[in-house]
């Protein structure tokens, strides 16, 4: 072959980027063997480098083993890189050690792959050792190595990351004791970012990747102020943020609901041509959704040149988190029709829509689809299924899924415990104890679930114990939901003054809803003096709190103080307030049917009314006596009886009975608390009609069966 041809081959070897496919790489190798055999170690190393660009691990190893030891540094670099790209991180690190043992000195091209392997193996100590090696070789000022070091420390944010600097006395040394490390996880993360910052500051040259790494590390660590400060510094250093930078900082404005600054980033993206980028588009959709601007999220989604699974997930999540559940479900269907395969995350996004709408049939269909697509082993999907089944009233299915999960993290434990709490099961507390014994880290939400379970079961002493444990043993500061659950429990137990004092001494300002729980308890225990005190507290916070006026009016009406009740209703009318209408809905044959009190609009109202009359006659024969104490006194007795018998949940149950085979469980959801009369009536209905009736109101689940309710008349 001519010298000119050989020169052409050498040119290809020097310019690896011109080789575009695996086939071209292998053809180049074959031509090299035919024209220049025996091929030198240097040229073989270049072929291995090209192979590693296409992740051809076996071909790279075969050629590597033909080279006499010690192989050139370039060959070692390529093998280490190829192992890391193939997910064989231990092999990559083993090759790095072998390289050093044969006397080859790593160069700047080796360390990024080695540090990537340390990250993937979550081995910080090894990463620190590699950092020490980098510094001894004087490569800590190299741009790519510095970026890889920053990435490692940002992803493994722990205080031990300070140690590589300890070898150099001129660099500030910070020692953290083992006791501090175990007791202060937040400080540990902060110290880890200190190391990222130190690496960043020692780099003489920084590119966009360097800035992105430190900004992203701060965002993930919740240090938003520092992240935005670094973004400003980046602009001052004459480097323009790229699409990755913008998608990294947008979640800050989402979390802080800062629409103005979010729009500024949106404007920057448009001016610099990033608005068509998928990641930027998805981040902007999330930002507008968190700021309750769903219409803006829709506009952005419609303007994206190409919608992938991530952008579909973002717009579906935008609807679901803003309570537009039907729209979220419709968008999910559209995604499937567009042949976009859902990610595992897609199911955990859409499942809460089924849970909130209590559409068990649709939830089961989604569950079947999840199994068919092999996503049932996804931890987050399984946890969302537990939550969905529990909220749709099927606690047995929820527990079955929970028990069959290979790994149960804090999210899945919390979902199951909260499910039991909503259903009033004491199992919530025993399961929480199991969680503690399993060594799973407790979080704020799981304590809300436990306190709620105690509230529904009337376990005052146990609730105080868990409330103290939460603060003292777990370091979790009580939030409004914790206070509300405990105040609700004290009120239910009749300890009204204790509840009043407890709310008054909260370290954070109570909301109207916290006081409202106590007002409901005052109504149950007919304590008018305390009710007046609590109402005054509510009206100080929110003078337009309609629920408090309605509760007071009903309370006075039930006690026969109709003049007081009338005064409150006149005040409500004068202020333009309207009581939230009670609504109940039931799913029959894959369709949701909604009812309001006295509703005659349903196409089957005639049959529903007949069923109501029949049911009423039957339960009265069994001893049911309507409680009409809350109906205004100026209404005759027959009208009172009709008014209570046509409450929304009674209509839904009657429709369920005439629309399903005998013995079928009836599931009804109501937006308000079930009234005392309906609660009594449904117990009788469950017995006389031989049905299990599950009613979910805004407080909890009620399982009615054989004339009894799971709440034990304590709700």
From TrEMBL:
TM helices/strands, residue ranges: none
PPR repeats: 207-241, 308-342, 409-442, 443-478
GO molecular function: RNA binding; zinc ion binding
InterPro entries referenced in this protein's UniProt entry, alphabetically: DYW_dom, E2_motif, E_motif, PPR_At4g14850-like_plant, PPR_rpt, TPR-like_helical_dom_sf
Gene3D superfamilies with a match to the protein in the record: Tetratricopeptide repeat domain (1.25.40.10)
Coiled coil: none
Keyword terms, alphabetized: Repeat
One BP annotation, GO: RNA modification
Signal peptide: none
SUPFAM superfamilies: TPR-like (SSF48452)
Protein origin, superkingdom: Eukaryota
Residues annotated as domain DYW: 623-715
Protein family according to the UniProt entry: Belongs to the PPR family. PCMP-H subfamily.
Record's protein name: DYW domain-containing protein
């Amino acid at each position: 072959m001519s010298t000119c041809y050989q020169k052409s081959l050498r040119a290809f070897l020097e310019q690896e980027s011109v080789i575009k496919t695996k086939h071209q790489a292998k053809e180049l190798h074959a031509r090299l063997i035919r024209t220049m055999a025996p091929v030198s170690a240097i040229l073989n190393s270049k072929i291995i480098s090209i192979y590693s660009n296409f992740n051809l691990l076996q071909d790279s190893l075969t050629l590597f083993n033909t080279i006499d030891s010690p192989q050139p540094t370039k060959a070692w670099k390529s093998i280490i890189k190829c192992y890391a790209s193939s997910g064989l991180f231990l092999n990559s690190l083993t090759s790095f050690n072998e390289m050093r043992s044969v006397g080859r000195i790593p160069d700047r091209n080796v360390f990024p792959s080695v540090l990537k392997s340390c990250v993937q193996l979550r081995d910080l100590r090894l990463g620190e050792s590699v950092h020490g090696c980098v510094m001894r070789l004087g490569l800590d000022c190299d741009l790519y190595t510095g970026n890889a070091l920053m990435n490692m420390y940002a992803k493994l944010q722990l205080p031990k990351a300070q140690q590589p600097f300890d070898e150099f006395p001129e660099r500030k040394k910070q020692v953290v004791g083992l006791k501090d490390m175990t007791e202060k996880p937040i400080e540990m993360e902060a110290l880890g970012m200190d190391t990222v910052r130190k690496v960043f500051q020692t780099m003489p040259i920084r590119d966009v990747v360097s800035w992105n790494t430190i900004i992203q590390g701060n965002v993930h660590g919740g240090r938003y102020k520092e992240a935005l400060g670094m973004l400003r510094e980046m602009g001052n250093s004459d480097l323009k943020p790229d699409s990755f930078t913008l998608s990294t900082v947008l979640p800050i404005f989402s979390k802080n609901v800062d629409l103005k600054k979010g729009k500024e980033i949106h404007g920057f993206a448009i001016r610099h041509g990033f608005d068509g980028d998928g990641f930027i588009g998805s981040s902007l959709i999330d930002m507008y959704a968190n700021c309750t601007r769903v219409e803006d999220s829709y506009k952005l989604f419609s303007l994206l040149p190409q919608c992938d699974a991530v952008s579909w997930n973002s717009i579906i999540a935008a609807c679901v988190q803003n309570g537009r559940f039907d729209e979220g479900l419709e968008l999910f269907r559209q995604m499937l029709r567009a042949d976009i395969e859902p990610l595992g995350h897609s199911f955990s996004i859409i499942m809460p829509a089924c849970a909130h709408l209590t559409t068990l049939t649709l939830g089961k269909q989604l569950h079947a689809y999840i199994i068919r697509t092999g996503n049932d082993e996804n931890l987050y999907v399984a946890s969302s299924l537990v939550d969905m089944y529990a909220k749709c009233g099927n606690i047995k299915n929820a527990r079955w899924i929970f028990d069959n999960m290979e790994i149960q993290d804090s999210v899945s434990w919390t979902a199951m415990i909260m499910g039991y709490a909503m259903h009033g099961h004491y199992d919530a507390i025993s399961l929480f104890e199991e969680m503690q014994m399993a060594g799973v880290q407790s979080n704020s939400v799981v304590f809300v679930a436990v306190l709620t379970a105690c509230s529904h079961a009337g376990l005052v002493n146990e609730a105080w114990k868990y409330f103290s444990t939460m603060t003292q043993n777990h370091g979790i500061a009580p939030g409004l939901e914790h206070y509300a659950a405990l105040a609700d429990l004290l009120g239910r137990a009749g300890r009204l003054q204790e509840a009043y004092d407890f709310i008054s001494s909260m370290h954070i300002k109570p909301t109207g809803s916290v006081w409202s729980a106590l007002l409901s308890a005052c109504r149950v225990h007919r304590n008018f003096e305390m009710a007046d005190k609590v109402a005054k507290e509510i009206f100080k916070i929110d003078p337009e709190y309609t629920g408090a006026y309605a509760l007071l009016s009903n309370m006075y009406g039930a006690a026969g103080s109709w003049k007081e009740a009338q005064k409150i209703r006149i005040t409500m009318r004068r202020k333009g307030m309207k009581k939230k209408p009670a609504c109940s809905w039931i799913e029959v044959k894959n369709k949701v049917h909604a009812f309001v009190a006295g509703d005659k609009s349903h196409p089957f109202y005639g049959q529903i009314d007949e069923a109501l009359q029949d049911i009423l006659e039957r339960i009265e024969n069994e001893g049911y006596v309507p409680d009409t104490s809350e109906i205004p006194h100026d209404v005759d007795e027959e009208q009172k009886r009709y008014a209570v018998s046509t409450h929304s949940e009674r209509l839904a149950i009657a429709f369920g009975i005439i629309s399903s085979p005998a013995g079928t469980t009836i599931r009804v959801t109501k937006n308000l608390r079930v009234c005392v009369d309906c609660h009594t009536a449904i117990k009788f209905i469950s017995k006389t009609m031989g049905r299990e009736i599950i009613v979910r109101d805004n407080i909890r689940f009620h399982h009615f069966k054989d004339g009894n309710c799971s709440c034990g008349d304590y709700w």
